[in-house]
Amino acid sequence: MGSSQQHHHNDTDCVWVHGPIIVGAGPSGLAASACLTQQGVPSLILEKSDCLASLWQHRTYDRLKLHLPKQFCELPLLGFPQDFPRYPAKYQFVSYLESYASHFSIHPRFNQAVRSAHYDHGLGFWRVQTQDSGYISRWLIVATGENAEPVIPDIPGMNKFHGSVVHTSSYKSGSEFKNQRVLVIGCGNSGMEVSLDLCRYNAIPHMAVRNTVHVLPTEMFGFSTFGIAMALLKWFPLKLVDKFLLLVANFILGNTDQIGLRRPKTGPIELKNITGKTPVLDAGALSLIKTGKIKVVEGVKEITRNGAKFVDGQEKEIDSIILATGYKSNVPTWLKGCESFNKDGMPKTAFPDGWKAEEGLYTVGFTRRGLLGTASDAVKIAKDIAQQWRVINNEGCNSHVIQLKET
Predict the structure, then answer these.
(1) How far apart are the first and last CA of the chain?
(2) How does the average pLDDT of the chain come out, rounded?
(3) 30, burial (CB in 10 Å: exposed 0-12, middle 13-18, buried 19+)
């Protein structure tokens, strides 16, 4: 099994895992496993689906590209191939992850949905239970991420609607919605890109905007906006960088308030750090809003049999609804008796210290800072576990391990 060594425990038919158990084979789990391998520590990834990065493979639309230039999306120890474009497409990113796993000989156990994980204080180990197996290890790395489950909003009347309702996790392309009036609920990156994609198929997207939103150009002066922001933050205070970004954004995009996209009072980077809410990087939707091809509507008050009523009193007939309402963590559903995560399934300790919890529990990919945050977590976790690993292995086998017989 990959780089991990396992034994079966006689009494409980649990698999003893020598290194850490990693839950989730997305970019976070792969990065953690690769960094551990580099430090000489084996690990075992448990993945509920049948493939690596199932969110990327099964729950993203066909047109998706990385929103940030590739240098900000690389996992540790192995970069993207030279010939990849500046903004790799979904299929290129997936192929990178597959070659990454292959390069580090990472072989997750697929179709292992973790039902529960808890720390056994008597044994001093983590017990992890999937639908058909039990595992024991000193260390548990939570790598299921911020985007494990779709968020489905509770909107009055949704059950009455006669048309189709899909979350963006099930949306593939606008070809299924040709010539339809489509209500897109949500105006983040997904809502904007889906609206843009719908226009390519002559659908008429109505994008419901309930909250304020920061829209920034993807690039400024030929450089990525994100790259400029990262560079400026090394030299200038955050609030000043935010002011600069908004000044340039208004110059390039115009005043977005005039087209129904009100900006928050807090600046884009500060808001991202506080709430995790990402600014929208405009991929072309804004010009279609200005020409009226994408219609911006107020928040939805209720759904009717063949349309929607909005908070400003308007009512419109609609053929289909797409929920661009984002994702959430699923950690509270399976990690038991743990004080380190809040009710939303996010680490209580803020970035940059959220990667380590108590009793050999670690988290990777919950930084609200994308793949850069994941890479930083993975490196720290691997170093920390490797130090303990060397101490344990220098002291010889622990008494618990001696009772285990090899399979």
Answers:
(1) 11
(2) 92
(3) buried
Q: Which burial class, exposed, middle or buried, applies to 290 when counting CB atoms under 10 A from its CB (0-12, 13-18, 19+)?
A: middle
Q: In the predicted model, is pLDDT for residue 5 greater than 80?
A: no
Among 311, 277, 371, which residue's Cα sits nearest to residue 155?
A: 311
Backbone angles phi, psi at 17, to 5 degrees: -105, 120
- What are the C-alpha distances in Å from 111 to residues 115, 132, 147, 238, 403? 12, 10, 19, 43, 29
pLDDT tens digits, one per residue of 280-330? 999 999 999 999 999 999 999 999 999 999 999 999 999 999 999 999 999
For residue 16, list its beta bridge partners: 7, 136
DSSP state of 332: G
Q: What are the pLDDT digits (tens) for 21-61?
A: 999 999 999 999 999 999 999 999 999 999 999 999 999 99
Contact call for residues 378 and 31 (beta carbons, < 8 A): yes
Instruction: Find tokens 């593939």 and name the residue.
Output: 172
Asked whether the whole model's pTM tops 0.70, one would answer yes
- In b/e form, how buried is each residue of 321-340, taking b as 16+ CB within 10 angstroms? bbbbbbbbbbbeebbeebeb
Q: Which of 216, 224, 165, 172 is nearest to 194 (CA)?
A: 172
Residue type, 365: G
**Residue 214 carries which side chain, given as an amino acid letter?**
H
190 backbone φψ class: left, alpha, beta (φ>0; ψ -120 to 50): alpha
Q: CA 325 to CA 191: how far, in whole Å?
A: 8
Within 13 Å of residue 295, how many CA atoms lie on the same side as its CB? 12
Which residue, 238, 278, 237, 275, is CA-closest to 351?
A: 275
> Would you state the structure tokens that stand for residue 281, as one six-digit string?
């990087």
Mean pLDDT of 229-253: 97
State the residue for tokens 């790259």. 227
Which is nearest to 15 in space by CA: 28, 4, 29? 4
pLDDT for 156 beyond 90: yes
- Evaluate if residue 182 carries a pLDDT over 80: yes
Query: What is each CA distance from 8 to 109, 122, 239, 404, in whole angstroms?
Result: 16, 19, 55, 6
> What is the crossing angle of helices 90-103 and 27-38, to 10°?
30
Residue type, 41: V
Evaluate if residue 396 carries a pLDDT over 70. Answer: no
The number of residues making up the chain comes to 407
Single-letter amino acid code for the residue at 225: T
- The Cα 146–Cα 154 span in angstroms is 20
